[in-house]
Amino acid sequence: MSEILGGTVGFTRLENTEFTLLESGARSSSTTTEKQENKYYTGVYICLNVSAAPGGDTVAIYVRAYDQISGSVFNLLQGSNISTTGLNTYLIHPGAGLDENGSSLKKVVPWPLNRNWDIQVYHSGSGSFTYSLSGCYLP
């Protein structure tokens, strides 16, 4: 990203940008966020914070990217099934290592983030989960 200032070209340094995808709330069926438009960032850090779980049912996140020509959707990240409360973190970034051991990351994907993407939180049953979903764009 560049801008022209007084006849010279300058570069603006990108900073981490935090955002909310889903406010905390009770949900009993699969939910998909609005489609996100990523113009400048190469990765994203995602937090799924589950504060109430019914027991027996599970949720899992799918970070989905869109093909720019056909609009077809494909998975960038598929999270594991979650049945308990707690903070679940995920990372998509081309500079990320694959080793999740010793960190609180549930899944790491060493790929760049697409321009258009969303997250589907899949529910295995009709039990009510309370959770929020947030993210942080990474340069």
Explain the overall architecture:
The chain is mostly beta strands and 139 residues long. The protein has one domain: Sandwich (Jelly Rolls), CATH 2.60.120. It is built from no helices and twelve strands. The strands form three sheets. It has a five-stranded mixed β-sheet, with no helix packed on it. A hairpin with a 6-residue loop joins β7 and β8 (73-78). Mean pLDDT is 90; it is low at 1-5.
How much beta, percentage-wise? Answer: over 45%
What does the average pLDDT come to? 90
Distance between the termini: 11 Å
Outline type: globular
Kindly identify the CATH topology: Jelly Rolls
User: What spatial order of strands do you see in the largest sheet?
Assistant: 3-12-6-9-10
Q: Any guess at the CATH architecture?
A: Sandwich
Q: What are the defining features of this structure?
A:
12 strands; single chain; mainly beta; 139 residues; Jelly Rolls; 5-stranded mixed sheet; 5-stranded antiparallel sheet
Give a brief description:
This protein has 139 residues and is mostly beta strands. 0% of the residues lie in helices and 55% in strands.
